[in-house]
Amino acid sequence: MKNEKVLILGACGQIGVELTIALRKAYGNNNVVATDIQAEHHLLKGTGPFYNLNVMDAPAILAMIKKEGITQIYLLAALLSATGEKDPMRAWDINMKSLLQVLDMAVQEKLTRVYWPSSIAVFGPTTPRDNTPQQTIVEPRTVYGISKYAGELWCQYYRQRYGLDVRSLRYPGLISWKGEPGGGTTDYAVDIYYEALQKGHFTCFLSENTYLPMMYMDDAIRGTIELMEAPLEKVKLTMAYNIGAISFSPKEIAASIQKHIPDFKIDYAPDFRQQIADGWPKSIDDSAARADWGWQHNFDLNRMSNEMLMHLKDKLELAV
Q1: Residue 2 has what pLDDT?
Q2: How far is CA 290 from CA 226, 228, 234, 236, 283, in A?
Q3: pLDDT tens digits along 219-266
Q4: 176 vs 191: CA distance, rounded Å
Q5: CATH 3.40.50.720 in the chain, residue ranges
Q6: Number of neighbours of residue 55 by Cβ within 10 angstroms
Q7: Residue range 32-78, pLDDT digits in tens
Q8: Number of Cβ atoms within 10 Å of the Cβ of 191
């Protein structure tokens, strides 16, 4: 794996920033080419090559692959759940066209591996919500979820028809202090830490007992790289793997914050995102990932809150 040359599409998003940093640490700065339609994220500056690139511009991506001798692609660019519902056709176009272009180029250029993230958004209200199985009823109700499930099927098709090694994880809600939230329904669990430190109060757009699967970003990044480095014979699923860590409600994350900030207050004003959350799992069965390639998480809720508050105090330059 050390001889790979990696291209990251969407490097300045919530996952992309930290994944780029981790991959550069693993493979060397110059072996990981970061791109995004946005300006280079401040945490990436000076760490390796960066180019402004539109994920919809297939000729530009192909030229980058040839110029840099790319062997692997991580396609992270997407419109997320809440943002996607505001403009469904644009979300579908970006999420699906970008994937199909990359899959075609990967076959054409004989790339060794492609990573494409899926999500718990593939599940819907007819899915068993407690300990949601790897294989189960899949009837998403958001354009984001629809595009992710369709994308999983396309990845499976390219693996079976063309032998392309495509790998994927169904991420739960991801929580990080480094990158900014990207417009997802689970992003309340990032915003709440900022508001707790800056205002001492948070109004949550979900009800207090809405349980959702979540994961600290450090675990997600490590799990992504572990999946990509696993021998092919251990990656037994041709669809995305369920991957889980912790599940909690807004009430419970508020309580974990109050251990550090006793005066922190939360209230609730559910909006359209409540309906999205009500169609998603409360917890995830990720036994296939644990059995096949050894997945395990390190962070529980309290350890995550400790980390988030400690780092955000420094980031926001607060003396709390």
Answers
A1: 63
A2: 11, 14, 11, 12, 15
A3: 999 999 999 999 999 999 999 999 999 999 999 999 999 999 999 999
A4: 10
A5: 6-172+215-242
A6: 23
A7: 999 999 999 999 999 999 999 999 999 999 999 999 999 999 999 98
A8: 15
Kindly report the CATH class assigned to 6-172+215-242. Answer: alpha beta
Please report how many Cα atoms fall inside a 13 Å half-sphere around the Cα of residue 240, on the Cβ side: 29
Helix, strand, coil fractions of the chain, as percent rounded to 5:
45, 15, 40
> CATH 3.90.25 occupies which residues in the chain?
174-214+246-282+299-315
Active-site annotation holds for 144:
yes
**φ and ψ at 279, to 5 degrees?**
-95, 5
Read off the pLDDT of residues 72-103 as tens digits, 9 standing for 90 and up: 999 999 887 778 888 899 999 999 999 999 99
Q: Is 248 helix (H, G, I), strand (E, B) or coil?
A: strand
Burial class (CB in 10 A: 0-12, 13-18, 19+), 91: buried
Tens-place pLDDT, residues 192-229: 999 999 999 999 999 999 999 999 999 999 999 999 99
Catalytic residue among 27, 74, 115, 144: 144
The burial of 43, by beta-carbon neighbours within 10 Å (0-12 exposed, 13-18 middle, 19 or more buried), is given as middle
**Which residues have a Cβ under 8 Å from the Cβ of 108 and sit 6 or more positions away?**
none
- How big is the chain by its Cα radius of gyration, in Å? 19
The residue type found at 285 is D
pTM of the full structure: 0.93
CATH number assigned to the domain covering 174-214+246-282+299-315: 3.90.25
Using DSSP's 3-state secondary structure scheme, residue 202 falls into strand
Calculate ∠ Cα 96-97-103, nearest 5°: 90
The neighbouring-strand residues paired with 246 are 214
In 3-state terms, what secondary structure has residue 204? strand
